[in-house]
């Protein structure tokens, strides 16, 4: 089993009296691809900057490979950072940008030349050594920034929303490039984004953050299929989040109708949140539905139709289906027991932010 390379222990950080990180605990395995995911202001970039040494925590420790590096400056850490703005030197050409860090370390010229050639080949920019960075596209500039980081042979590469400035097609291409690089280099990637699709596509571990707390940490499949609270369910993909009541083990009441489920361990008649993904709803004839409603909105998305089905109680169900249902048609809704996720309701505002379940 891969061991832990980075440990953040009881990290707290505030700016101008506003708490950004509150007693954060995070463990990063060596050779993993970890994505810090969350909305703006959730603390993900601050976490990355603390790992990189660009911010010092108000409390807590940063441990790297068993050594406390909390007070070490960035240049003394075995990490390199790729920023959203790339931070390339516009007055230097490609090879000069890549060589900058190596020259500061007084590496031999032959060593630097070999490293430049190797890194450009890795990022598919062979022959670009003499090009001015201003003449490059956004995607090419990003590749140069990555090449400049990896020539220093870091054990960890920190990436702060590096694809944010790229158009959709190029961003998707670069996602696969980063996965390839990660596998070829065999180093640890810690990636910051607010884009759910990026996180699900690239990571082997996702850390969902909100209001300075870690809401949930797990594999993409765990985060998507087994969200631990309503925030995670709503932030990762699209969801129908429903007020419900746990009748007993494996039976939940939603809008007065009993739905079989697979969850156990809740108190009888306990108020809960039920999460049902749009793609897990099956539309049937009204008489065969567990709940009935009327299709009130329809959009064709290419691989499926996105529909809103308004139930008899007024709730608008979001439905993704390959079955066409015209607006105004009455339909039945059925859900497989395995596709209903039951979660405790938060007992307080603080618990809602932290995502703690009793």
Topology:
Layout: E1 4-15, E2 18-29, E3 33-37, H1 44-52, E4 59-64, E5 67-68, E6 79-82, H2 94-104, H3 109-122, H4 138-150, E7 156-160, H5 168-185, E8 188-193, H6 196-202, E9 205-210, E10 213-218, H7 220-225, H8 230-235, E11 240-248, E12 251-254, E13 257-260, E14 270-276, E15 281-284, E16 291-300, E17 305-311, E18 316-321, E19 330-335, E20 341-344, H9 349-354
Parallel strand pairs: 3-8, 3-9, 6-7, 7-8
Antiparallel strand pairs: 1-2, 1-4, 4-5, 9-10, 11-12, 11-14, 12-13, 14-20, 15-19, 16-17, 16-19, 17-18
Helix pairs in contact: 2-3, 2-4, 3-4
Question: Could you explain how this protein is built, in words?
Answer:
Residues 348-358 have low confidence and may be disordered. With 358 residues, the protein is α+β, with helices and mostly antiparallel strands. The protein starts with a strand and ends with a helix. A hairpin with a 2-residue loop joins β4 and β5. It is 25% helix and 35% strand. The longest helix is centred in the middle third of the chain and has 18 residues, at 168-185. It has 2 domains: 4-225, Rossmann fold (3-Layer(aba) Sandwich); 239-354, OB fold (Dihydrolipoamide Acetyltransferase, E2P), CATH 2.40.50.140. The relative contact order is 0.11. The chain has helices at residues 44-52, 94-104, 109-122, 138-150, 168-185, 196-202, 220-225, 230-235, 349-354, and strands spanning 4-15, 18-29, 33-37, 59-64, 67-68, 79-82, 156-160, 188-193, 205-210, 213-218, 240-248, 251-254, 257-260, 270-276, 281-284, 291-300, 305-311, 316-321, 330-335, 341-344. The strands form 4 sheets. Strands 6-7-8-3-9-10 form a 6-stranded mixed β-sheet, sandwiched between helices. Strands 13-12-11-14-20 form a 5-stranded antiparallel β-sheet.
């Amino acid at each position: 089993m891969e061991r832990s390379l980075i440990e953040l222990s009881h990290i707290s950080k505030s700016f101008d009296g506003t708490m950004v990180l509150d007693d954060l605990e995070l463990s990063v395995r060596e050779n993993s691809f970890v994505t810090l995911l969350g909305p703006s202001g959730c603390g993900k970039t601050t976490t990355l900057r603390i790992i990189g040494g660009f911010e010092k925590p108000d409390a807590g420790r940063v441990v790297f490979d068993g050594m406390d590096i909390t007070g070490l400056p960035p240049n003394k850490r075995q990490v390199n950072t790729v920023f959203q703005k790339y931070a390339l030197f516009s007055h230097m050409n490609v090879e000069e940008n890549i060589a900058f860090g190596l020259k500061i370390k007084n590496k031999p010229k032959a060593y630097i030349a070999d490293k430049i050639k190797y890194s450009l080949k890795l990022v598919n920019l062979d022959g670009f050594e003499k090009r001015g960075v201003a003449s490059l596209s956004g995607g090419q500039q990003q590749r140069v920034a990555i090449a400049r980081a990896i020539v220093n042979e870091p054990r960890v590469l920190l990436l702060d929303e590096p694809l944010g400035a790229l158009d959709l097609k190029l961003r998707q291409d670069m996602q696969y490039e980063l996965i390839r690089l990660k596998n070829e280099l065999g180093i640890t990637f810690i990636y910051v984004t607010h884009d759910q699709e990026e996180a699900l596509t690239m990571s082997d571990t996702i850390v969902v953050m909100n209001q300075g707390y870690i809401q949930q940490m797990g594999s993409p499949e765990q985060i998507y299929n087994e969200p631990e609270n309503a925030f995670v369910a709503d932030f990762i993909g699209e969801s129908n989040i429903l007020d419900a009541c746990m009748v007993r083990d494996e039976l939940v009441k939603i809008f007065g109708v009993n739905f079989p489920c697979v969850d156990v361990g809740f108190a009888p008649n306990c108020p809960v949140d039920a999460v049902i993904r749009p793609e897990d709803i099956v539309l049937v004839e009204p008489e065969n539905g567990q709940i009935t409603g009327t299709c009130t909105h329809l959009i064709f998305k290419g691989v499926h139709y996105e529909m809103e089905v308004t139930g008899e109680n007024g709730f608008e169900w979001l439905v993704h289906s390959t079955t066409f249902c015209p607006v105004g048609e009455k339909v039945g809704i059925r859900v497989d027991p395995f596709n209903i996720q039951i979660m405790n309701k938060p007992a307080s505002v603080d618990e809602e932010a932290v995502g703690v379940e009793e």
